[in-house]
Every structure is written in C-alpha cells, then in structure tokens.
Amino acid sequence: MRDHRIPASPAHHVGLNDDPVATPMGLYTIRIRGRLGPTALSAFPSMTSELRFGETVLTGLVEDRSALFGVVAQIEALGLDLLELRQLTPTPTQIERITDIR
C-alpha cells in the first residue's frame, strides 16, 4: 500500500491581527447643493465652509478612509445633495492653515 499524503503548506503564525492599517490623512473638498445653515454646518466641525454660486463647499483634512465615509454618511443622514467629493493634493501651507483652524 502506498502512502498518499498531500503536502500542506507550513502552519501560519497564529496571533492577533489588530495592527492598524496606516491610512494617510487627506485634504478633501465637498460640494453640497444649497446654502447650509449653522446647524447643518455644525455636523462638520473639522471642515471650513464657503458659499459659491448657491452651493456650500466644505474643505478640510480627513483623518482616514473611515472618517471620510463618516462625513459622507452625515451628508446622507441630513438629506443633503452631494454634488462632488474630491481629494486634493495639499501644499504644506494649505495643511498648516487648515490644521490651525481646527
């Protein structure tokens, strides 16, 4: 009788895989239809706002991907019309200015 063993790969290291994945901070601009009042703007405390051509433009640093999805969820929860979400390539001066506003 022949030995019909199937070779297997070596065992993997067993341990906790809770190391956070480093996601870099990003500068985003978000266009929303209409003028947001103070109450709606208070939902986005880390972002600056500007009214342009009847649209509210929010700009700010977002910590990571999870935080970005949180901002989008907040827009949806408030029933706002999201027109555009764009990641910008910030200059060091822009990052410094925005972090000073916080």
Short structural summary:
This protein has 102 residues and is α+β, with helices and mostly antiparallel strands.
How would you describe this protein?
By secondary structure, the protein is α+β, with helices and mostly antiparallel strands. The chain has one domain: Alpha-Beta Plaits (2-Layer Sandwich), CATH 3.30.70. The protein has a 4-stranded antiparallel beta sheet. Strand 2 and strand 3 form a beta hairpin. The longest helix has 13 residues.
Helices and strands in order:
Layout: E1 26-33, H1 38-41, E2 48-52, E3 55-62, H2 65-77, E4 82-88, H3 92-101
Antiparallel strand pairs: 1-3, 1-4, 2-3
3D shape: elongated
Class per helix and strand makeup? alpha+beta
CATH class: Alpha Beta
What multimeric state do the chains show? single chain
- Biggest β-sheet: count, sense, barrel? 4 strands, antiparallel
- State the separation between the terminal residues, measured CA to CA: 75 Å
In terms of DSSP E residues, the strand content is: 25-35%
CATH architecture: 2-Layer Sandwich
Q: What is the N-to-C order of secondary-structure elements (H for helix, E for strand)?
A: EHEEHEH
Tally the helices.
Answer: 3
In total, the number of strands is: 4
| Named CATH topology | Alpha-Beta Plaits
Mean pLDDT across residues: 82
Name its key features:
single chain, 102 residues, alpha+beta, Alpha-Beta Plaits, four-stranded antiparallel sheet, 3 helices, 26% helix, elongated
